[in-house]
Protein backbone atom coordinates (compact mmCIF):
# COMPACT_ATOMS: atom_id res chain seq x y z
CA UNK A 1 0.00 0.00 0.00
CA UNK A 2 1.38 3.36 -0.96
CA UNK A 3 0.72 6.32 1.28
CA UNK A 4 0.49 8.75 -1.64
CA UNK A 5 -2.28 6.91 -3.47
CA UNK A 6 -5.53 7.88 -1.75
CA UNK A 7 -7.73 5.99 -4.22
CA UNK A 8 -5.97 2.73 -3.43
CA UNK A 9 -6.13 3.40 0.30
CA UNK A 10 -9.89 3.83 0.01
CA UNK A 11 -10.20 0.65 -2.06
CA UNK A 12 -12.23 2.23 -4.84
CA UNK A 13 -13.91 -0.31 -7.08
CA UNK A 14 -11.84 0.54 -10.15
CA UNK A 15 -8.50 0.00 -8.42
CA UNK A 16 -9.32 -2.85 -6.05
CA UNK A 17 -8.89 -5.81 -8.46
CA UNK A 18 -5.72 -4.46 -10.07
CA UNK A 19 -4.22 -3.57 -6.69
CA UNK A 20 -5.14 -6.95 -5.26
CA UNK A 21 -3.66 -8.79 -8.23
CA UNK A 22 -0.49 -6.69 -8.27
CA UNK A 23 0.24 -6.60 -4.55
CA UNK A 24 -1.34 -9.72 -3.07
CA UNK A 25 -1.80 -12.32 -5.76
CA UNK A 26 1.50 -13.14 -7.41
CA UNK A 27 0.44 -16.68 -6.54
CA UNK A 28 0.62 -19.31 -9.23
CA UNK A 29 -1.72 -21.68 -7.44
CA UNK A 30 -4.95 -20.58 -5.77
CA UNK A 31 -6.47 -24.02 -5.25
CA UNK A 32 -5.82 -23.96 -1.51
CA UNK A 33 -6.37 -20.23 -0.93
CA UNK A 34 -9.58 -18.93 0.63
CA UNK A 35 -10.49 -15.24 0.54
CA UNK A 36 -12.07 -13.89 3.74
CA UNK A 37 -13.42 -10.40 4.25
CA UNK A 38 -15.76 -8.72 6.66
CA UNK A 39 -18.15 -6.82 4.42
CA UNK A 40 -16.37 -3.47 4.41
CA UNK A 41 -17.75 -1.12 1.72
CA UNK A 42 -15.01 -1.74 -0.90
CA UNK A 43 -15.82 -5.47 -0.80
CA UNK A 44 -19.52 -4.85 -1.44
CA UNK A 45 -19.14 -3.07 -4.81
CA UNK A 46 -20.55 -5.31 -7.56
CA UNK A 47 -17.41 -5.23 -9.74
CA UNK A 48 -15.28 -6.18 -6.73
CA UNK A 49 -17.72 -8.96 -5.79
CA UNK A 50 -17.52 -10.29 -9.35
CA UNK A 51 -13.71 -10.18 -9.28
CA UNK A 52 -13.59 -12.03 -5.95
CA UNK A 53 -16.03 -14.70 -7.23
CA UNK A 54 -14.10 -15.11 -10.50
CA UNK A 55 -10.75 -15.35 -8.71
CA UNK A 56 -11.65 -17.54 -5.73
CA UNK A 57 -14.82 -19.24 -7.04
CA UNK A 58 -16.40 -21.17 -4.15
CA UNK A 59 -13.60 -20.31 -1.70
CA UNK A 60 -14.93 -17.02 -0.33
CA UNK A 61 -15.80 -16.40 3.31
CA UNK A 62 -17.86 -13.28 4.00
CA UNK A 63 -20.27 -10.98 2.19
CA UNK A 64 -21.48 -12.66 -1.00
CA UNK A 65 -19.37 -15.77 -0.42
CA UNK A 66 -20.40 -19.38 -0.06
CA UNK A 67 -19.55 -19.18 3.65
CA UNK A 68 -21.15 -16.23 5.45
CA UNK A 69 -19.26 -14.31 8.13
CA UNK A 70 -20.64 -11.65 10.48
CA UNK A 71 -19.62 -8.15 9.38
CA UNK A 72 -17.47 -6.04 11.68
CA UNK A 73 -16.84 -8.89 14.10
CA UNK A 74 -13.51 -8.16 15.83
CA UNK A 75 -14.07 -10.86 18.45
CA UNK A 76 -13.98 -13.48 15.68
CA UNK A 77 -11.40 -12.12 13.24
CA UNK A 78 -7.86 -13.49 13.62
CA UNK A 79 -6.47 -10.26 12.21
CA UNK A 80 -8.05 -8.35 15.09
CA UNK A 81 -7.62 -10.73 18.01
CA UNK A 82 -4.16 -12.02 17.04
CA UNK A 83 -2.21 -10.75 14.05
CA UNK A 84 -2.27 -6.95 14.38
CA UNK A 85 -1.26 -7.08 18.04
CA UNK A 86 1.46 -9.65 17.37
CA UNK A 87 2.91 -7.64 14.47
CA UNK A 88 2.70 -4.34 16.37
CA UNK A 89 4.47 -5.82 19.39
CA UNK A 90 7.34 -7.13 17.25
CA UNK A 91 7.64 -4.05 15.02
CA UNK A 92 7.47 -1.39 17.73
CA UNK A 93 9.46 -3.07 20.53
CA UNK A 94 11.74 -0.10 19.92
CA UNK A 95 10.88 2.76 17.55
CA UNK A 96 12.13 1.99 14.02
CA UNK A 97 14.69 4.66 13.06
CA UNK A 98 13.86 4.71 9.32
CA UNK A 99 11.01 3.88 6.98
CA UNK A 100 13.10 1.07 5.49
CA UNK A 101 13.68 -0.40 8.96
CA UNK A 102 9.92 -0.23 9.58
CA UNK A 103 9.29 -2.14 6.35
CA UNK A 104 11.95 -4.70 7.24
CA UNK A 105 10.47 -5.25 10.69
CA UNK A 106 6.96 -5.71 9.28
CA UNK A 107 8.26 -8.24 6.74
CA UNK A 108 10.23 -10.10 9.42
CA UNK A 109 7.28 -10.11 11.82
CA UNK A 110 4.97 -11.55 9.15
CA UNK A 111 7.56 -14.19 8.24
CA UNK A 112 7.84 -15.21 11.90
CA UNK A 113 4.23 -16.42 12.06
CA UNK A 114 4.68 -20.19 12.26
CA UNK A 115 2.34 -23.00 11.21
CA UNK A 116 1.96 -23.87 14.91
CA UNK A 117 0.82 -20.32 15.64
CA UNK A 118 -1.73 -20.52 12.81
CA UNK A 119 -3.01 -23.83 14.16
CA UNK A 120 -3.49 -22.26 17.59
CA UNK A 121 -5.28 -19.28 16.03
CA UNK A 122 -7.59 -21.65 14.15
CA UNK A 123 -8.46 -23.43 17.40
CA UNK A 124 -9.05 -20.04 19.03
CA UNK A 125 -11.50 -19.13 16.24
CA UNK A 126 -13.47 -22.29 17.01
CA UNK A 127 -13.56 -21.39 20.70
CA UNK A 128 -14.60 -17.82 19.92
CA UNK A 129 -17.42 -18.97 17.65
CA UNK A 130 -18.81 -21.00 20.55
CA UNK A 131 -18.52 -17.98 22.87
CA UNK A 132 -20.30 -15.85 20.26
CA UNK A 133 -23.16 -18.35 20.14
CA UNK A 134 -23.42 -18.34 23.95
CA UNK A 135 -23.38 -14.51 23.93
CA UNK A 136 -26.18 -14.59 21.30
CA UNK A 137 -24.07 -12.62 18.83
CA UNK A 138 -23.06 -9.85 21.22
CA UNK A 139 -19.47 -8.86 21.91
CA UNK A 140 -17.87 -11.27 24.34
CA UNK A 141 -14.12 -10.63 24.35
CA UNK A 142 -14.29 -8.34 27.37
CA UNK A 143 -16.02 -11.16 29.30
CA UNK A 144 -13.06 -13.55 28.92
UniProtKB/TrEMBL annotation:
One of its GO terms (molecular function) is nucleic acid binding. It comes from the Eukaryota. InterPro entries: RNaseH_sf (IPR036397). This is Transposable element Tc3 transposase. It comes from Araneus ventricosus (Orbweaver spider).
Amino acid sequence: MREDDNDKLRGSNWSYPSRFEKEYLPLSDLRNVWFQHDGTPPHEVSSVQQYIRDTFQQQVIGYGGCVEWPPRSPDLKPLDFFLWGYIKQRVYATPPPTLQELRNRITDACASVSPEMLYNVQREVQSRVQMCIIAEGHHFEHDR
